[in-house]
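Review the following:
>
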Amino acid sequence: MEEQTVTPEAQTAPQEEKSTKKNILQFIKYALIAASAGVIQVLSFTLLNEVVVKMNWMQNLMENHETFGRIMANDYGPCYLIALILSVIWNFTFNRKYTFKSANNIPIAMLKVFGYYVVFTPVSTLLGNYFTAKFATFPAIDYIVLGITMVVNMVTEFLFQKFVVFRGSEGTAVKKNAAPPEKASAEAPRANGDV
């Protein structure tokens, strides 16, 4: 009988496949939570852009306060910023808990996400204002720009959270009702009737 030897490459192949599946499932989970944050962003943007901005008290503010009027001259920016903040809070909270299952220091993690948005927000706001003004006659340009921005945000923020914010802390959150590993393994034989 011929003896078969297992190469190190053959041993690592199942681990790599398992890791790939885990990463794909993680991205799907992230995308679903990001989609729910996207719904919050679109709904809040629409409410602000289509209802609040057109209310009499808002129109009076824009007419009577020069600085506020200039800020709201292209109302895409302020509406986008408020909607973005709401979706970021939602997205961070649920992805930390369910996608990355991280128990790392929340204020530090939030500070890292804040750093991401210190770059992303001005760039996306300026580009959003530019394109909504340049193509102002194009139907639904506000929503087209918002949609493109949200897709770019989802992909880049996933990568930033995975490789910067939660790097090294994925899977560190422990369920409150879960027994510590030593306790669970010590009690397992008793549950089966073994001594």
Summary: Residues 24-171 form one domain. Helices lie at 8-52, 56-64, 66-71, 76-99, 106-134, 141-165, 181-191. The mean pLDDT is 84.
